[in-house]
DNA sequence: TTCATAAATGAGTTACGACTCATTTAGTGG
DNA sequence: CCACTAAATGAGTCGTAACTCATTTATGAA
């Protein structure tokens, strides 16, 4: 399954905005690329202007501050990442295709691991902002929370109702899956690639399946 | 169990160095505090001098560049964090006290979760450096690898020999435990505290125990 | 073609941050 | 008390980065 990369999605989003002139679009694209390459703090507005092929004044015409640029860049990324993390399976899909946890986990993580592989730099930009930029955090949580709740929670409830998943709290199950993904991301970022994605996937599926498949004697 | 905080450990380490004058010690301490509060890039050398109560020239007497200060600050932190993550259980302890995985996980994570709770800011400094500062990564991995291998791997092999743990690759088991810890850290950082640590601990123990307790039919 | 409005320009301003160095102060052995 | 060295000082340099603004250039309706 070929996934669109964040950069491409960003390009499309930016191009679709009728308020943005071509130069303004170039500015946003250059900003994303430079933030991804060098980090926000080590990217100057003149860097951005140069990469975008415009004058520095043009950068400031629409965005009053450098921070405003970052917000304009990160917002659509978050808007893309979050839904792509919050898997949306239909009830029908769940009942017909996923008769056990293993196939469900495999289906979910196959996508997500590849998504991580394909978007490391852009994910770093987003993570850097979420982790190290106070203020944007709160807004993000407000924005993200409902989507996660609506989609993922329902899926888990479905599995639980069919007695295919242990009755642990949904938020902790989500946390676990995101933790594994975050750990994978960390490993990819820190170790020198290539990481054996297939091996990781097989392990994730086996481990999570064993962890969450109900056994009569285990409850919290 | 009361754990020493990174900041205190740092203070002691710095005070124990005979090459450092009191003012140089104050500079390092101020640097750690400011990096933790504001991040490295948003801390100026004049900030450091002011906080340490010295002249800016004094800051540059020993450390030729601002980056050298960061290295001097982060190195002992890493040296502290790593052993504290790599649990060192004696073989005797393992065989007498830990007759099942659950008590082992509880013992390990009780410490680690509290460690995270007590050192969030300092951990952010270290993480920021490891994740977002190329170059320091490689050195870190070289430095960290052997310790982890020597300690943790042996523990797992021990459990496996006693048929208390599934025979999955050690590196993936470590990855899983670190992922859970990283996820916990992320949750603490992002959500507005307080997080219910006890609830998380109980869940971690239950989930990991179920995941890693061997069942005849499951192998990778 | 003309006028009006928005977009773009880039030289300039201002502030601040990393780093230097001539000078002063503190410490120490004789 | 002196002489010598190391430690500390802080005013100053130099570069850079965010941001401004008077001016020019494109756009497009009348």
From TrEMBL, chains A, B:
It comes from the Bacteria. Residues 44-63 bind DNA. PANTHER family: HTH-TYPE TRANSCRIPTIONAL REGULATOR RUTR, REGULATORY PROTEIN. PROSITE patterns: HTH_TETR_2 (PS50977). Pfam families: TetR_N (PF00440). Keywords: DNA-binding. It comes from Lactiplantibacillus daowaiensis. This is TetR/AcrR family transcriptional regulator. InterPro entries: Homeodomain-like_sf, HTH-type_TetR-like_transc_reg, HTH_TetR. Residues 21-81 form the HTH tetR-type domain.
